[in-house]
Amino acid sequence: MLECERKRSVIEFLGAVPLLQRLPSSSLKKIAQLVIAKDYEKGQYILREGETGEGVYFIWEGKVEVSGSVHAEEDTRPEFQLQRCDYFGDGVIASIQQADVIALTKLTCLLLPHEHCTLLLPKSMWSADKTPDSCSLVENILHLEPIELNIFQGITLPDAPKFGKVFGGQFVGQALAAASKTVDCLKIVHSLHAYFLLVGDFNLPILYVVDRVRDGKSFATRRVNAIQKGNVVFTLIASFQKEELGFDHQEVTMPNVPEPEMLLSMEELRERLLTDPRLPRSYRSMVASKDYIPWPLEIRFCEPNTNNHQEKSPPSLRYWFRARGKLSDDQALHRCVVAYASDFMFLQVSMNPHHTKGSKEASVSLDHSIWFHRPFRADDWILFVITSPAASHTRGFVSGQMFNGKGEHVVSLTQEGLLRKASPNPATASKL
């Protein structure tokens, strides 16, 4: 029991080290098993200039002073202090130390030896072994490049879904990915709330700037701004919690729907639309003329969909989805995938009762909230049940529930969005 608690303490500590937060959780857990605790007394040298170090040292408790080269002029000799969560030493290749490192207080460091420092160089932020290009498409979409502490960069891949702008689910998924990479891996997101502020340009990279609002023993809070051209285009706040056993109940029941294997895929459904005689020829021609980009998710609608947006229909929708391909095991990634998927055909359900022949409507998401109730895998089938209980004053409201294949209620969602008749010259800069 004590050994288990120590391991959790080490993982939690390492998760607070900025250098390590960009690593896959699998790498972080391996590092926690491999580090060696080293104790030093006040005034003791940890490293001396001209010597070869043993690896990378992470300061668990205490402070050290780094004193610059003795060959420098006395008045320009650099000196600075390091404390808890800072690190020093060298990585994969042992090198001659350029400075003295001296304990200013009683000191405890965790040493990662040279032979294990390759763990600090993962192939991607989600996997130590697979490059983003070799991962599933949705995992690749959710891969971000760390720019500096608390700043990440995302892009819209050529194969990613686009609707003349950055897909809203991409903002939610990538922003949550950025937030997750600044929290120790023992804490997992349990809720998020987001606002879509401006239309995103899919030709430009997106900077995700994370504000570490709070770090507590059980909970952590992060705020993320997505920035393009110097403007905040999307903002998200997320709360993370360390796993803890507690009360458990489920009142809601998964609807009785066909199994996903019995339903048509998006590709098969598109082929049917092209030949369905019940649909106007003009609509079938429009479908045929549009370039079809396969989604990074497999999607199976539970009810036959012959809605051509020319007639009213009930404000509800049910479909199964899962990521294409095998995802890495990081639970944070699976929650980011669901966040990405959550914006697909969500708000559009509130338009169903308002379609009329010849009319054209426009809808844009305004805000979005998700609560994660139980663990799940996003590369297993998940049922998304959507309803729209209300629309008023140009705003539509939708709510959703997600269930895994066992019928467990794993996620709850809400969104509000703007519903208007399409403008002949829609604004492209602002969502309002």
Automatic annotation (TrEMBL):
Keywords tagged on the record: Hydrolase
PROSITE patterns: CNMP_BINDING_3
InterPro entries associated with the record: Acyl-CoA_hotdog, Acyl_CoA_thio, cNMP-bd_dom, cNMP-bd_dom_sf, HotDog_dom_sf, RmlC-like_jellyroll, TesB_ACOT8-like_N, TesB_C
SMART domains listed in its UniProt record: cNMP (SM00100)
Domain Cyclic nucleotide-binding: 19-90
Coiled coil location: none
Pfam families in alphabetical order: 4HBT_3, Acyl_CoA_thio, cNMP_binding
SUPFAM superfamilies linked to this entry: cAMP-binding domain-like, Thioesterase/thiol ester dehydrase-isomerase
Domain of life (superkingdom): Eukaryota
PANTHER family: ACYL-COA THIOESTERASE, ACYL-COENZYME A THIOESTERASE 8
Family the entry assigns: Belongs to the C/M/P thioester hydrolase family.
Protein name per the record: Cyclic nucleotide-binding domain-containing protein
Organism: Hevea brasiliensis (Para rubber tree)
